[in-house]
Amino acid sequence: MQAFLSSSIPATSYSRSSFLPQPPQAPARLALPSSGPRAAAAVVARRAAAEAGRCVAASASSSPATAAAATEVPGTMKAWAYDAYGDASVLKIDEAAAVPAVGEDQVLVKVVAAALNPVDAKRRAGKFQATDSPLPTVPGYDVAGVVVKVGGQVKGFQEGDEVYGMISEKPLEGPKQSGSLAEYTAVEEKLLARKPKSIDFAQAAGLPVAILTANEGLEKAGLCAGKSVLVLGGAGGVGSLAIQLAKQVYGASKVAATASTKKIELLKSLGTDVAIDYTKENFEDLPDKYDVVFDAVGQGEKAVKVVKEGGSVVVLTGAVTPPGFRFVVTSNGSTLEKLNPYLESGKVKPVVDLQGPFPFSKVVEAFSYLETGRATGKVVISPVP
Ligand SMILES: NC(=O)c1ccc[n+]([C@@H]2O[C@H](COP(=O)([O-])OP(=O)(O)OC[C@H]3O[C@@H](n4cnc5c(N)ncnc54)[C@H](OP(=O)(O)O)[C@@H]3O)[C@@H](O)[C@H]2O)c1
What we know:
Blueprint: H1 38-51, H2 64-69, E1 76-81, E2 92-98, E3 106-116, H3 118-124, E4 142-150, E5 162-166, E6 184-188, E7 192-194, H4 201-205, H5 208-220, E8 228-232, H6 237-248, E9 254-259, H7 264-269, E10 274-277, E11 290-295, H8 300-303, E12 307-315, E13 325-326, H9 333-344, H10 363-370, E14 379-381
Parallel strand pairs: 8-9, 8-11, 9-10, 11-12, 12-13
Antiparallel strand pairs: 1-2, 3-4, 3-6, 3-14, 4-5, 5-7
Helix pairs in contact: 5-6
Bound molecules: NADP nicotinamide-adenine-dinucleotide phosphate.
GO molecular function: 2-alkenal reductase (NADPH) activity; enone reductase activity; zinc ion binding
Domain Enoyl reductase (ER): 86-381
Pfam family, one: ADH_zinc_N_2
């Protein structure tokens, strides 16, 4: 985590492109059908009202009428779930899924927004069934929401805290059976961070898996100030953050990235120095070589052709060709906390795909869109009822 200690962060100007997140989309409603302890429920209701453009006086939260509206966490909730592996059609809404029990080291999060990742689709297709949790599964790793209950040993969070995180520490090894595509999800305190105030819940929900993967990959590849990096798949969820972290957190001297024609301007707006349109040029045929190649596409065989001698090739998916290596991201709240200042300051920005955010009722459509492989930044689910 040495990179975080760097005091010389290049001051890159960041121009907002049409792909970048627009002003927060107001959740149509976040009527808590139920809520946790009253204070937390009031915070959630006020936050939802604020994001919906309504104004709720702070004092109203303690009025008898509002207090009466706040009830205990229910035993059941709405959740998307599947009880057999397959394509997106296996997903069904369960109107009475069990609200997960809260362990001693966990908090219960009222989900305000969630996000999809390719791993959700691959898991749903049964690709990881040897190490998966038992069916039925409520999918979803990414969450942003409000703490409504805390376990007995939780020290860092309290009811009402706005948090975000990746809910399973090891996404492929016994991930949680009850994920974030639900009204509530239970998460270990150590996997969560405070949501940066400068971004809304939808933007925060799109970050955890992607930003943790980008960070861990760049760190494992040994990127540091003055080195060059090529990001393959720069317009995707992970790639759009790898570009920004390389520049803003790791101090890379040159960031190159690939995407198709329509996304070249986005790459530049994220800080890419050399934007390569893969529909017109083969990156492996260009003369440039890089200290680090970050492959978020599955082009490991080509990636190793453009790495400098002694450099690193980190591969997220597909076949690995030496000297390339692959890793699987580990969830970690303290890493998110360390990245929070870059998000607070706007040096690193979430990129939310403008086909969304998809409301909770449109999760099947959101999965189908993600699985086209053409998403720009993150496919976000918001609001969640
Ligand atoms: N190992 C791990 O721990 C880990 C963690 C996270 C993700 N992953 C994996 O990493 C991959 C990327 O994840 P993601 O969330 O970033 O996916 P994503 O957001 O769905 O990626 C979509 C993007 O990929 C781009 N793309 C597709 N083919 C491309 C090509 N040939 N060259 C350049 N860009 C291309 C698309 O841009 P165009 O439309 O311009 O083609 C699109 O913007 C997935 O396979 C995922 O499962 C692994």
